Amino acid sequence: MLRKLFTFKASIKLILITTLLSNVGIFMVIPFLAIYFSKLNSLSTTEVGIIIGIAFWCQRAGSLLGGLPPIMSM
């Protein structure tokens, strides 16, 4: 499996690395974002969960639509 990773083109490696870094960054920020919303903005835990849930699903939908060929997204 690891040997196959080294045989990819440089552009594919770049996409994989940036996707990994983006996801790691998001998962490092989300807990602090929840604390910020609940403590400093005095939102309830339900509201914080809804906000973070909506953000998660919007990110997933955006990545799905962004990965489709132009003819399929119409």
List its traits:
single chain; mainly alpha; MFS_trans_sf; membrane; 78% helix; 3 helices; 74 residues; transmembrane; Major facilitator superfamily (MFS) profile domain-containing protein
**Mean pLDDT across all residues, rounded?**
83
Shape, principal axes of CA atoms: elongated
Run of helices and strands: HHH
Unreliable segments of 5+ consecutive residues: none
What would you call the quaternary organization? single chain
What percentage of residues falls in helices of 4 or more residues? over 70%
| Termini Cα gap | 36 Å
Task: Report the sheet-strand fraction.
Answer: under 5%
| Structural classification | mainly alpha
Q: Using only CA atoms, what is the Rg?
A: 17 Å
Q: How is the biggest beta sheet arranged?
A: none
Number of DSSP-assigned strands: 0
How many helix segments? 3
Transmembrane segments: 12-36, 48-68
Protein name: Major facilitator superfamily (MFS) profile domain-containing protein
Organism: Candidatus Bartonella washoeensis Sb944nv
Keywords: Membrane, Transmembrane, Transmembrane helix
Provide a compact summary of the structure:
The chain has three helices and no strands. With 74 residues, it is an all-alpha fold.
Word description of this protein:
InterPro entries: MFS_trans_sf. Keywords: Membrane, Transmembrane, Transmembrane helix. This is Major facilitator superfamily (MFS) profile domain-containing protein. It is a single chain. This protein is an all-alpha fold and 74 residues long. The protein has a domain of 45 residues. It contains three helices and no strands. Helix 2 runs antiparallel to helix 3. The longest helix has 31 residues.
